[in-house]
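Batch queue: ligand-bound targets. Current item pairs a single chain with NAP. No template structures supplied; prediction is de novo from sequence plus SMILES. Inputs echoed for audit trail.
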Amino acid sequence: MPDKKNRRILFSRLMVGEPKEEDFELIEESMPEPGDGEMLLRNLYVSIDPGSRGRLSGRDSYVPAKPLGEVMDTQSVSEVVVSKHPDYRFGEIVAGYHGWQDYAISDGKRLERVDPGLGPISTAVGVFGLPGLTAYIGIRKLLKVGTGETVLISSAAGAVGSIAGQIAKIDGAHIVGIAGGQEKCAFSKKVYGFDQMIDYKSESNMSEALTRACPKGVDVYFDNVGGEILNAAVANMRRFGRILICGQVADYNLEPEQRTGLRDVSAFIGKRLDMRGFVVLDHSEFFDEARKVMADWIKGKQLTYREHIVEGLENAPRAFCGLFRGENFGRGLVHVADPST
Ligand SMILES: NC(=O)c1ccc[n+]([C@@H]2O[C@H](COP(=O)([O-])OP(=O)(O)OC[C@H]3O[C@@H](n4cnc5c(N)ncnc54)[C@H](OP(=O)(O)O)[C@@H]3O)[C@@H](O)[C@H]2O)c1
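Prediction returned. Tokens below.
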């Protein structure tokens, strides 16, 4: 493929506030060539992750700040097109972190073979990738949700929240979701089985809305957004309630001094609350179990997932900016190419 070009989308300007398409730059380079022990990958799907935002302001988050001029290294599903690596051969489908570009070189590190028996290859970075694993490990391993508990989930129509809600329901919980807009709320009730949904965009007082939806209080809060919704959840927690801080998407575009923060820390004493943060990558010992169990649930029609697939690598920046306006409805992905074999 000597005359082919490699399109790459670089992070080109430190972000202030909402991400803008101009914070990225599309460039064309010549095709990279794999050396000994390496392979050339062609990206098929790349992910659009709200969590990337934390690295794009020049500050470290749980991963170091991303330097300007680097390609956006989100999750990817790729095909091996040239292999000089002893363990991989032409045509294999792999998942890694090769991000917003047509082609990438891999030395095989941080790369997994995609199991085609689990589902369509896009699910390797969806329900069987970080979002699904986050939901499974959060609900089953960390929160250990039990029968009859009231579980509240924010960004409930999203990639993580929709799976977390369904798993809590399988485990016998009463599930209440929060999402933006009537369409997402109606779909989440009908398809994901949420017992109640709250459209936070049409509520002027989230604490009162939560009290109406959860009159006996909340046992477990799976927090994907932070901000005022977290404060409203704390006000509605029952004694010995558990809060899992999974994501803070309402805060990602704010400078640290602009963030709402937790208002009523005393409630943690009075109600004996537990709150913990987690990063799914710390719990890789559960990945195989999670994938197997979720695949069985999908086959048994107990679990379903939704993907929001944008066509064309060049549209990745627009899709990323849209996440923060709730424009994705399901797992945010970009379809870059089809497998050649
Ligand atoms: N801890 C971990 O290891 C880990 C791993 C993966 C993901 N995460 C986190 O999990 C969360 C969900 O990720 P995801 O991939 O499933 O994304 P997602 O929920 O599919 O997409 C993001 C959603 O956030 C909502 N949102 C955007 N701005 C908001 C705001 N200001 N207030 C309230 N909601 C807002 C929008 O939904 P609405 O239309 O409903 O507003 C949007 O669709 C993210 O915070 C992510 O960083 C954490």
